[in-house]
Give the backbone structure.
Amino acid sequence: MSKIANSKNNHIKKKIKEIDIVLAGQANVGKSIIFNHLTGLHQHIGNWPGKTIEKAEGRLFYKNYIINVVDLPGIYSLTTYSMEEVISREYIATKKPDFVINVVDATHLERNLIFTLQLLELERPTVMALNMINLLKLKGIKINYKKLESILGIPVVPVAAIHRKGIAKTIDEGLKLIKQKKRKRILRFGKEVENAISRLISLLKHEDFIYPKRWIAIKLLEKDKFVYQLVKEKNPKITEKAKKICQELERIHGHDSSLIIADERCNLASRIVNEVQEITKPKKLTFLEKFDMLSSDKIFGYLIMIGIFALMFSSIFKFGNFVSNLLESLFFYFQEFFKTILGNSFGASVVYSIIESIFALIEIVIPYILPFYIILYLLEDWGYLARVAFLMDHFMHKVGVHGKACIPLLLGFGCNVPACLSCRIMETERERFITGFLTTLVPCSAITVIILGLVGKYVGMLYAFSLYLLAILIIFVIGKLASKIIPGQTFELIMEMPDYKKPNLKTILLQTWFRIKDFLVIASPLVIVSGMVISIIHTTGYSSKIAELLSPIIVNWLGLPKIIGILLVFGILRKELILIMLSTLLGTTNFSVALSNVQMLTLAILSMFYIPCIATIAALWKEFGWKRTFVITIFEILFAIILAGIFSKVLSFII
Amino acid sequence: MVSMQPCHGCDPGSNPGHRITKNKMVEKFLTEMKEGQEGNVISILDGITTTKRLADLGIIQNTKIKVLKKAPFGPIEVIARNSRLVIGRHLASKILVRLDE
């Protein structure tokens, strides 16, 4: 913001006040653009305590105020349907932010108002940022802002976030609200419902709650389990009476009382919209709208999707390969350089392993994760991901997740790390976890090296291809099982189909930057420490002891040579090391001399699943916490050993 | 846990296919509608959670709804209250709509 810094000189004269505000709104309303305009680089993206749901916080200095901004998740309502909704509503109700900015998509006012009405029930000072007013003319919509303001009883600021218009004014209006402390207007429902609400409020008169009384009354009518329990603990007589009031209301309306409230809100929203909005027929279809029609078409939709994916993946892999080769040759000189100064002592090899781990990390982040993130956010910001969800929902439902999951899974073929990180596009925590788990089973490009370089070259391409089919089959089966075992329902897909929007470069770059920073914070210590440990094991000669230790599994159960045990330890760092080290240890690149066909297949199956590589473990950790990461890792180790063992026994009969 | 009351003499769910009421109005589930067809939601034959969920997005009884796109075997894109929504096929098969003439 431009007016940020002027407080610096004044702060001696005037006291600087610190306030908390939140951004609340539905998905795709431009909340994150506003958040990024407000906070710029002064932001932190973490998780809500104990949850894997992202929490974006930032800070802004404005007119003698230090303003802490929290960007709540984009949600469609404030009921307790999903974790995101619980978090949002509890945050607003209990943390009592100084004011709430309700970001609203002006082109979809009616649906957005339903959320606004729920938000206003929480009775915090609220400003409406009516975003996307720049698109109104194009869509033939006219909104009377002043009238909307007077009906809702809150300031309404027209905003065009993409052009940075109206954002400062929104904050100004919010600051005014803090000073005024004026009584909130209450939007009334129908007569019978209001009657029930006021009876409930009078029942609650003598109890003390952190939540507004009217809100509790409405929630009791909505049969909200959380609020019901809360009131029951204070005074069970009230909930008994509340039940009766609900029944009376149901008798009048002939519906469940929770639906009556939902209906009332819808009707209220549509009455308000009728008052303030005027729609004239929009102009004829623009190019983008024609593309919009095509991109979710039965035939063209899939063709366009394949085209976009092909373009996306090939450009990322081309770019990735190019950059990673470039980096590798650059690092080669560094390596030589370090080798000559460090010499050959024990300490030197430890220092050297640290340098190598840092290089390895850079070689994943710059060529692969960076472009993945940028393109992913570009597609999301543009609105294309919703089309993918629409087109792929049927297929992905078979694995127990929604259509969007096909993106992380496809990304996984390139590199599991960005695939895992991209799972945040999934809507619920449960789906995020299932998808994240499945991505670690996708054979990434490093495993492709093993499959093609070992099986493809020496056993036959048909076998290599079958291994891919095996991986897909396993992902399918495990996905099915996971969605059965992991608690929680699979909810039916209900989402908004956003219009295509011009992506905002600043938002995309900021989001990419903060996510990469976050990833590095977790990944770098993990990669460096494990690299160090493995190098110490190797230089002290413990690796043969480890091979000895693993030999019951490697030799007896899997029927592989003992040295494979060492390779698997190194493979934790980077899976392509398995093949590279194999040739060094064997002293030849002709693997067929040392390994039989069955052994090669067994080794390939083992390498595919035996553990996510250390960078993927870091990504899992960032997204799902260490406990779940640990469970996934242990599961995959056991799973791979059992699977590869069974295959080696079965294959030795067949081949 | 279906809480919806059948309305105006129609008995939703008892006979599949087209339901024709006394006024000769055609009623179809959302999944049976063709792209471009329009109508009013009569009822949602599912539990309260789902019904409330749809209400949060503005789909309640009497809401005007139009089918925009149907993904093969997949979800259905509709327009309601001037905004576009995607509804999973299974859920869409529980939304009964009275078609416009």
Summary: The two ends of chain B are 33 Å apart (CA to CA). The longest strand of chain B covers residues 38-44. The mean pLDDT of chain B is 77.
